[in-house]
């Protein structure tokens, strides 16, 4: 099995959920750019430059490439050095980033250990999901908008209160989809297709069905 698994897809496709499930099953470290950034936002040691980038992110702008590399590369090195595989999601937002990651993997001798999974979803469905999903105020668990979860009041993981995320407002979601949706993803998809390391799954299915297809890829 590959040691480095990269999930891509538009916002709301469920790539983060699937990355977590895969990491749990195989004992890999789930490295989420979003989680790394949220951890940085409460880190007293964050630099002024990092804090400025975080404020721009809250306004719906893309995170600067240098900050993504700084956080993600260190996390990848640390975990592979300890013998753990890694699962990345939310890390690749443009072809330049994709190439930068490939260069990083090649420099460390990991080029043959990379697999990319696209969880495909239309921009329209992505918008509907993102404007209706919620998050646990206590543990940060993201609760997608599904028939099985739409009536939940408390977090199924820890019992905490479910709230709407501040960055899930309509205007911010529209901006995110313009910058991170399928039009922006196409060059990235083409890049990985040419490398022969891309697998595409239908994100319109239930979490369970997408999850089963992903596991089947590796079993």
Q: What is the CATH class name?
A: Alpha Beta
What do the pLDDT scores average to? 90
Work out the oligomeric state of the chains in this entry: single chain
The biggest beta sheet reads: 5 strands, parallel
Low-confidence stretches: none
**Could you estimate the helical fraction of the residues in percent?**
40-55%
Q: What's the domain count?
A: 1
Kindly report the name of the CATH homologous superfamily: P-loop containing nucleotide triphosphate hydrolases
User: Can you write the helix and strand succession as a string?
Assistant: EHEHHHEHEHEEEHHEH
Please state the second-level CATH architecture.
Answer: 3-Layer(aba) Sandwich
Secondary structure class reads alpha/beta
Distance from N terminus to C terminus (CA atoms, Å) equals: 9 Å
Using the CA coordinates, give the radius of gyration. 17 Å
Looking at the structure, what is the overall shape? globular
CATH fold category name? Rossmann fold
Care to describe what's here?
There is one protein chain. With 219 residues, the chain is an alpha/beta fold. The protein has one domain (4-122, 169-218): 3-Layer(aba) Sandwich (Rossmann fold). The protein is 49% helix and 15% strand. Strand 5 (134-136) and strand 6 form a beta hairpin.
Quick synopsis:
This protein has 219 residues and is an alpha/beta fold. It has helices at residues 15-26, 33-41, 48-58, 65-81, 95-107, 123-130, 170-180, 182-195, 207-218; strands at residues 4-8, 29-32, 86-89, 114-120, 134-136, 142-143, 162-163, 198-202. A hairpin with a 5-residue loop joins strand 5 and strand 6 (142-143).
